Amino acid sequence: IVMGEANESVKFKPSDIAAYGFTFEEIIYQFYSKPTKKGGNKFLTPIVIGPKTSLFQYSIYTSGSGGSLSSNQTFYTFEKADGSNLLLGVLGIKKFKAELKAFYKESPAAQKLIDERLNDWLSQKKDLIDILSAVNKQ
Questions:
Q1: CA-CA distance, 60 to 48, in Å (whole number)?
Q2: Cα–Cα distance between 37 and 39 in angstroms, integer?
Q3: Which phi and psi (to 5°) does residue 124 adopt?
Q4: Three-state SS at 118
């Protein structure tokens, strides 16, 4: 929400602006309006911004009630410089790797890293950063 000239509040949606950012306690926060697997645009956090490809993410956290387990689901938007997107949600590792390999089929370095990495969810973010860094360096 932003305060307008007449001291009225204006609420921007992801369809209204491309990005926004702010600084809080010396930490810079940035959010970009990007398409998501659930449909429509959401404000996503950038993970990698590069000349050939970029990666954005958002998470949905659900807390359990009555002693049930909580869960955190992460969704990714991969974007190439030509504007094409790959939207990935919660998938098995094999399917996730297959979708990523198809999207980066022109990158031998990405193909190799996708084959070697992304074998467990704990290192997924680091593996994705390494893969996109390889694509951006080619």
A1: 20
A2: 5
A3: -60, -45
A4: coil
Residue with tokens 């997107």: 85
Please give the radius of gyration of the chain, using alpha carbons only, rounded to the nearest integer.
17
pLDDT means per 10 residues, the chain with 138 residues, are: 76 86 89 85 94 92 66 88 92 92 96 94 92 94
| Residue found under tokens 């491309």 | 18
Among 78, 91, 136, smallest CA distance to 118 is for: 91
Tens of pLDDT along 120-129? 878 999 999 9
What would the two tokens of residue 121 be? 């969810």
Cα separation values, 133 from 43, 110, 130, Å? 23, 9, 5
The pair of structure tokens assigned to 33 is 């309006």
Own/partner contacts of 22-26, CB < 8 Å, gap of 24 or more, are none
Rounded to whole angstroms, the Cα distance separating 108 from 127 reads 16
Residue matched to tokens 């930490």: 27
* Per-residue tokens: 98: 């297959």
